[in-house]
Write a structure and sequence with these properties.
Layout: E1 26-29, E2 38-42, H1 44-49, H2 59-66, E3 75-78, E4 82-84, E5 87-89, E6 99-104, E7 110-116, E8 131-132, H3 133-148, E9 155-166, E10 175-184, H4 190-198, H5 202-216, H6 230-254, E11 256-257, E12 279-280, H7 304-319, H8 325-332, H9 335-350, H10 358-374, H11 379-389, H12 403-407, H13 412-429, H14 434-447, H15 455-468, H16 472-483
Antiparallel strand pairs: 1-3, 2-9, 4-5, 6-7, 7-10, 8-10, 9-10, 11-12
Helix pairs in contact: 3-16, 4-7, 6-7, 6-8, 6-9, 7-8, 9-10, 10-13, 15-16
Amino acid sequence: MDARTPNPLFHLDYDPALEALGDEFYDPVNAATFPQTTLRWRNDAVLQKLGIDAKNVSDRQFIEAFGRFSGPQPCLALRYHGYQFGEYNPRLGDGRGFLCGQVRGSDGELYDFGTKGSGQTPYSRGGDGRLTLKGGVREVIASETLHAMGVRTSRCLSVIETGESLWRGDEPSPTRSAVMVRFSRSHIRFGTFERLHHIHRPDLARQLLDHVIETYYPELTGAGEGQGNSDRDSSFYLALVERTAELAAQWMAAGFCHAVLNTDNMSITGESFDYGPYAFMAKYDPKFTAAYFDYWGRYRYANQPSICRLNLEVLQKSLAELIPPGDMEVALAQFDSHYQAHYRQLMLRKLGFGTLPLPTAAHLVRLTLQVLEASPVEYADFFKGLRESYQPAWGDGDGDMAIATVLAPQDDEQTALVEQWQTEYVAAHKSLSVEEREAVAARLKMNNLAIVPTRPVIEAVWEPITTDDNWEPLYTLLTQIATNSPAQ
């Protein structure tokens, strides 16, 4: 491709929607200048959502846009506050990233380009504004895996190695550096509203809420605009409760622990983003805690739904001048039932079922979790084993239920529990037609990845990068995740 070819990444359908709200919401900044820019990952699948043929975008053009940030769009460090581990922090904001453009996708929806590791901003609080290369690689793995699992998530558009040596307390140092660009629905956070409440600007909160509803909840705009929209505004909060409950259910079914569910990491669109010390759980353990610094297990795996609910409750304080508090209480009261229904349905799909009578479904999901907690098998391996060994004949009590071997009970109590689970699983099939049993096999494959990147898997692809600068194991892993194919 000729060097003079216009960069298609500079000629997207850009829409400065957040910039148009005014400079009370952000600070203009400049990207850091890096000693090198080597493209390590580009997400051509995301380019399709932007209406771009990947063949028409060179690596050099990716680097121009997302390594040197030489395009026409301004760089805006967003302002927000947040509750971090339960304590309010008014000293937040984009400290090592910025919004580098908003663009209309081929579906007409508005999307953000947001950076991580792009340099210091007014909110860096003494930090260097950089991202480790491993941090960028880990976010690619998290977002692509969650996307493949059907979780509403941001995605990485690019990771570019920047040639600096960084010192970190949680990685062997010096370590390599990178700048990442995230593609998401929005970077407006719960903490964005919390900041406006803290600085006593209900006028700006009103402006922001109108923008959020118009842009991300357009189905609610029929009630009109301005101060008289209490029904519309209340409906927004209810929709946010539902989206957040669904997101928590998606994490739980995926066996995913986000690790840092502070309110500045909660998106106003109910989308998962900003992956730091996350982990996909190995052994099923409700007490599993991903972040080494979460000493008391506040954000442990089992706490995620209740923390999301608490964050929604705390948000009410910042919205109380805009939305009737009574309406928000009524909406929040629906969180638990909405979460449970969505989680139950997701788990049924992981077990291969489309639907079952409620008592049967609830009992089977509960029994599955009991088996997983008692068995030494890993969470993902159980569902992978079920996907690989399932036979439609199980519904007639025939066929080899090899899943018992996968579960590997180690004593009489575990054996009895596995046998009970098998009995209940087979019983749930007896009323299914031949066609429905075939659909179970397809559903098991669709809803259970052949490979899930637990910590050992991530370390196995990171080690060749550190020792030999060999990226092929990472690219192979990402291909396996995207195609839901087993490792060869």
